[in-house]
Amino acid sequence: MGNKFVMVGGGSTQSPGILEVLRQRAKELNLTDLVLYDNDEERVSLLGQYTKMYYGETGSPVHVSYTTDIEEALKDANFLFMQIRPGLNKQRAIDEKICLRNGVVGQETCGLGGFSFAMRVIPAVLEIVAKAQEICPDAWILNYTNPEAILSEAIYHEFPDAKVLCICDMPVSIEGAIAKYFNKDIHDLTFKYFGLNHFGWWSAVYDENGQDLLPQLREDVLTGKIDTLLISNEETTEDQYWIDTYKRMIQLFKRFPEYFPNCYLQYYLTPDDMVKEDDITFTRGDYVMQGREKRIYEECRRVIAQKSAKDSSLHAGVHGNYIVDIAYAIIHNTHERFTVNMMNHGAISNFDVNAVVEIPAYIGSHGAETINVGEIPTFQKGLMEMQKAYEKKTVEAALTGSYQAAIEAVMLNKTIPNYNIGKKVLDELYEANKQYWPELK
Length: 441
Ligand code: G6P
Ligand code: MN
What we know:
Mn(2+) binds at residues 168, 198. This protein is an alpha/beta fold.
């Protein structure tokens, strides 16, 4: 029997990259059945029709279908790839603007943009995981949905025994850039990384001889030999946001040279610069809507109208390959090393045992076994503790509808300077998200 894969949020603009990798690697995954599921009928029908033609005309034996019926989608599923976005990028842009107008970070995973997204997405994702526990309890759920940091905290606590892995492609993307800098194959390097999702650091990068390359990278940065890393992720090499972000990541490393930072720390350590550089009339959400979103659905419409995908092609990049690599490791029990979000349970010895952290793990057919990190230094630990408290309070607010929990979460977010601003942004976000957030009392 072959494997049935379900793309939950199959109508998403992030789907095409994954669909292409699944097509190319179907045989090694023993993939025979692919279902695009989404509650957005128009989008899933566009991408679903496109994918059927594209797979068919490229000779793929995989059976492709699409549906808005979750029960039908989940029946007999072996893998769920989940990435959903209640409110779409439209709501993302609204949140960004509310935050920026008040002088604070609006990014969709950091700052209060992330808080707002979490309030929309937590109930929706938990509902899907609950459904999966009912209909296909043996299926593996690989979750890419953002804000992954907060969401993973909710999922692992609500469903401690479910077969879920919460992942993000940012660590592997940056590792690819580091490997490229040293002219190495990423598979020959061993990365020591710890933190929370979009909030972590590399403490060492070992080459195949056991030599740590991080001191060399540090020296090259501190002496001014380099001021950026080349982006290894083909999807983003020409995207000015990512070009600037990689530059700022090197700048952050220069300012805090102990460990190499995940680029998303720019929103916490230099929030004022990030707000200044953002364009309130054209935010990242706007950029994605007018770029990727428009391009993808227009291409679907074109292909559907001409009844052939012969002159169309999708692009396989890091994002698609990473999630498929993990599915592969589960199917073939490879025990390969990946960076994932998992319960700490002592892996970071001086951090909350009951908190989700982003650390390396070996992945096999039984899931992920985390690797011991040991003690982490005071600076990173202090930042992580406040951020973790913020994440936990956000989950509480989403699950209980407590306004008090919400305002406490907001105050724990490092991007919020004081109560007056925190409360004002919270209230404005709530007003703009009435149809998506749980009711707050
Ligand atoms: C990286 C992050 C994801 C994030 C994406 C942003 O891949 O790891 O968490 O969603 O970048 O993409 P976008 O183009 O939507 O800003
Ligand atoms: Mn991510």
